[in-house]
């Protein structure tokens, strides 16, 4: 698992229980999954189709630094299935896991379209 993004938990990210609001964390994960898929599929027209069970393992508190990790699981004809993990950067304690996030590759008309990818590519290798 590669952890691409770090977030610093600030007061505006907290719920009334003074822990990280789950909706905020899910928005960050969805954005990270979209960015990952856009880069991998080389297409800005990518949408989230499905997010499997979300397993909240522990919480984050104000001033914690968390890391969001995304890894590909499967390349479909028009989709890319990803796995997500979130952990505390300093303690490495897991905060959340999601086994499947399915991102769909679209054309300019918003219709699913084949992407032709079968494995991870790094931008440096494309240049």
Radius of gyration: 15 Å
| CATH 4th-level superfamily | Hotdog Thioesterase
Specify the CATH architecture. Answer: Roll
The tally of domains stands at 1
Sheet with most strands: 6 strands, antiparallel
CATH class: Alpha Beta
Strand content: 35-45%
Number of helices: 2
Shape: elongated
- N-to-C span: 24 Å
Residue stretches low in confidence (pLDDT < 50, at least 5 long) are none
Task: Produce the secondary structure layout.
Blueprint: E1 2-8, H1 22-41, E2 46-51, E3 54-56, E4 65-75, E5 79-88, E6 94-105, H2 123-126
Antiparallel strand pairs: 1-4, 2-6, 3-6, 4-5, 5-6
What does this 3D model show about the protein?
This protein is α+β, with helices and mostly antiparallel strands. The protein has a single domain (about 1-125), classed as Thiol Ester Dehydrase, Chain A, CATH 3.10.129.10. The chain contains two helices and six strands. It has helices at about 20-40, 125; strands spanning about 1-10, 45-50, 55, 65-75, 80-90, 95-105. Strands 1, 2, 3, 4, 5 and 6 form a six-stranded antiparallel β-sheet that branches. Strand 4 and strand 5 form a beta hairpin. The longest helix has 20 residues, at about 20-40. About 25% of the residues are buried.
């Amino acid at each position: 698992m590669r952890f691409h993004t770090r977030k610093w938990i600030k007061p505006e990210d907290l719920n009334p229980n003074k822990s990280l609001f789950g909706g905020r964390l899910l928005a960050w994960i969805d954005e990270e999954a979209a960015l990952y898929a856009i880069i991998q599929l080389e297409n800005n027209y990518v949408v989230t189709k499905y997010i499997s069970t979300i397993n909240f393992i522990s919480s984050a508190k104000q001033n914690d630094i968390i890391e969001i990790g995304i890894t590909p699981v499967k390349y479909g004809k028009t989709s890319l299935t990803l796995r997500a993990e979130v952990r505390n950067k300093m303690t490495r304690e897991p905060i959340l896991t999601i086994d499947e996030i399915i991102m769909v590759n679209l054309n300019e008309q918003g219709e699913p379209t084949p992407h032709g990818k079968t494995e991870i590519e790094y931008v440096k290798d494309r240049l």
